[in-house]
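The instructor's notes for this session suggest beginning with a concrete chain rather than abstract definitions. Hand out the sequence below and ask the class to guess, before any prediction is shown, which regions might be ordered.
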Amino acid sequence: FRLAVLLEAENLRICDVIVEFVLVLMIDVFVLGVVWNIFLHHQPASFVDCAFAFYFTVSDREWVSLSNSRTLVK
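After discussion, reveal the predicted structure:
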């Protein structure tokens, strides 16, 4: 029974890592897109774009720290 619980926890951790990786990748691509738009096309990014980029970067940091503390708890 204990082994099953351990395996389940390990699977959850692996899922967490995969989800995290995908999320971080998506967020980074989004932020890069906004930056790319500003610098290459010399278009001022709309306020909404900047707000989204900022929000995602901040929530990205929080998410990573949250998951790190969760892994430490396990």
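Then share the key points. The chain has one domain: 2-73. DSSP finds two helices and no strands in the chain.
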